[in-house]
Structures are given as structure tokens and as C-alpha cells.
Amino acid sequence: MGEETERFAGNFTQQEPIPEEGIERAVEIMRSGRLHRYNLVGEEEGEVSALEREFAAYMGMDYCLAVASGGYALACALRAVGVQPGDRVLTNAFTLAPVPGAIASVGAVPVFVGVTEGLVIDLDDLEAKSDMADVLMLSHMRGHICDMDRLKVICGVNGIRIIEDCAHTMGARWRGRLSGSDGLVGCFSTQTYKHMNSGEGGLLVTNDAEVAAKAVMLSGSYMLYGRHGAAPGAEVFEAIKYDTPNVSGRMDHLRAAILRPQLKAMPAKCAEWNARYARVEAGLKGTPGLTLVKRPEEEDYVASSFQFLLLDWSDEAIADVIARCLARGVELKWFGGAEPAGFTSRYDSWRYVQAERMPASDRVLRGILDMRLPLTFSLEDCDTLARIIRAEVGAVFQRA
């Protein structure tokens, strides 16, 4: 270790408490015993339907469905747009396991598209593979948004339908357009480490009435689709209700109740995350051997985590940086590790998919380090994180 002995004492998995409004409403629901989304009295709307209506309005979309998890939202979207067993679905090489997992869960085959040093999908590689599938499950991995204008042109010319995985981009925008509104379907997660926290949960949005109706039926509506606040009219369901299977994955009133006040607070929370990101970024600028991720001017991001690259470093040197930082209380996750660890994994980790090697993407993936930035960290905490990372990267780089 170097001469610097500063340690970080924060907890990287400690989230903010649920707003009191949500806690109070959740307690009311528990006392009522009516947790199921269709367990309602008379014409009352219910928490889940209200959340769907409010999230659709927030997104500026026609339809919204609340479900049990972000992964369920992804698989439900695939089924709703007609993906069949054996179909190929394009997706990012840099993503998390639930994305290819959702594709595999419907019997389809993931086809991986490369990643750039900006940590976004390689649009040249997408164009080259555009004749291989007619659905793209686009992962805005770790909150990084690609050139959505060019992507939409590529997909439009080649008849590719877009499902957006927005688990890390709730509230983010490209040229002012909310992430999740550019594709046929937008899918969101409300798992604990996402921008809204219900432990587990997901949201699906679309402007396509048939896709929305199929998603509602798939989620397990038991013909109670009239109890949805952001679903198509009954006539749309009439055309599909007997031919769409029930693959139950509903959200319950308890989770919806704790999400609704969080949705109201989203604009303020987005600004708080970005302030923390900016402090870490400023503290790491100019660190020898460390590459910061360039954010396009067109992107209004929501950065609840921070990534940087140690490009062309040896595995041993990267592992040394991780160990030195951990000894000082800073937890870094490495997507380039030989074995999956926690949430980190790469396209070559998912051995149920036969994927060709992508050397340019492998170089990027090998160098990605990732750090959570929960709102329980102060701005001063972020300064501390940057100082420690800068010192330990610098120490290993000088020795190499």
C-alpha cells in the first residue's frame, strides 16, 4: 500500500429509506389484507392501476403494465411482439444476465452485438448483423445511451423492432426523448438497486395497443383487464384474449404503494445521482492509465453507478487495483474477470449461447470497472472515493 491511509466507510448496498407516504400506504394495505392487484372493492382503482396510469403519464406513453420484475417485463415484451422459439434476437454483448436470460426463456436465441469504449452498442456491428433478426433487445447498460437516432434508422431500414431494456435509464433522455420511448416497448426494473426501489418489480410501456393487450393477458389478468388504468379498450382484448396464454407475473398493491411516491420524486433524485457522478468524474480526470467514459452531448443521463476503463492492462494489474481499493473500503466490480462474480458477467459467461468471439469488444469488456453510487453517499463521500481510486490506480500504473 502507498503512504495514503484514507479509508472509505460507506456501504455500497445501502439504499435510501422508502418515503413515509409509501410506508404509511403499505401498512394500510397490509391491514386490509387486499394485496392482490385485482382484490378491489367496487370501483376503486387500486395502487397497481394507479401506478400504471401515473407511469404512463410520466413517460408520455399510451399504455403501461406493472409486473413482478424487470426480467419478467423483458420476457413478456418478447412474447407480446411475437418472438417464437428458435427465433434470433439481437442484443448487447455488454449487458447483465437477465437480458439474454429473458431471450432464452422464450426459447429464442441471443445474437450478441459488440460494445464500444463509450460502453454502448456498436452501431457498425449492429448494421452488419441487421439481417440476422427482426427484434433488437437494446440494453442501455449501466445507464449509457447510444446514438438513438442512428440506431432507429438502422432498425427502421431493416425492419427491426426495438425492445428497450431501461433498467438503468429511468428518467434519462436522448435529445430530450425519455429512454424507453424510442422503441416498440420500453422495459424498466424497480429492483432495489435501480432508480425506484420495491425490492423486485418491473414496468412495461408501449404505444402499440395490441402489444399492450397481449402483455396484460400474458401477465395473468384473468379477463380482468378492465381493472387496468393504462391499458387499451375492451375491443382490443376481444381480438387476442382467447389466444394469449397466462404467464403470471403481476405486481401487487404493496409494491405499487411504495413506488408511487418515489415516482413523484424522480426528477430531484436524478439530479442528486448526477451530482455524485460529476464529483467522482472530476476527481478521476487525468488519472494516468485510467480512461473515463465520454458522454455524448445529446445524452441526459441518470448515473446511479460509475464506470471507468483500464484498457490494455494485464489481468494481474487490474486485480491488484481492485484489491488495493477494497482494502481501503472501495468496492469495484470487474466485468473482465475470468469468472462471473455477483452481477458481473460477459457474453462468454452465458454458455447456453453459442457466440462468436468479438476481439474489439473483448478488449473493452476486459477493462471495465464498475462502482455503485447510492444516494446514501454524500458529495464529500464521492470526493473520497475518487481520491482513493486515483491513488491506487496511479500506484499500480507507475509500477507496471
Domain tally: 2
The string of secondary-structure elements, in order, is HHEHEHEHEHEEEEEHHHHEEEHEHEH
Distance between the termini: 15 Å
| Fourth-level CATH superfamily of the largest domain | Type I PLP-dependent aspartate aminotransferase-like (Major domain)
Query: Any idea what the radius of gyration is?
Result: 22 Å
Q: Give the strand order, joined by hyphens, for the main sheet.
A: 1-9-8-5-4-2-3
In helices, the fraction of residues equals: 25-40%
Blueprint (SSEs and pairs):
Elements: H1 20-32, H2 47-59, E1 63-67, H3 70-80, E2 88-92, H4 98-105, E3 109-113, H5 123-128, E4 135-139, H6 148-157, E5 161-165, E6 173-174, E7 177-178, E8 185-189, E9 202-206, H7 209-218, H8 234-238, H9 253-264, H10 266-284, E10 291-292, E11 299-300, E12 305-309, H11 315-327, E13 333-334, H12 359-366, E14 368-372, H13 379-399
Parallel strand pairs: 2-3, 2-4, 4-5, 5-8
Antiparallel strand pairs: 1-9, 6-7, 6-11, 8-9, 10-12, 12-14, 13-14
Helix pairs in contact: 1-9, 2-9, 3-4, 3-7, 10-13, 11-13
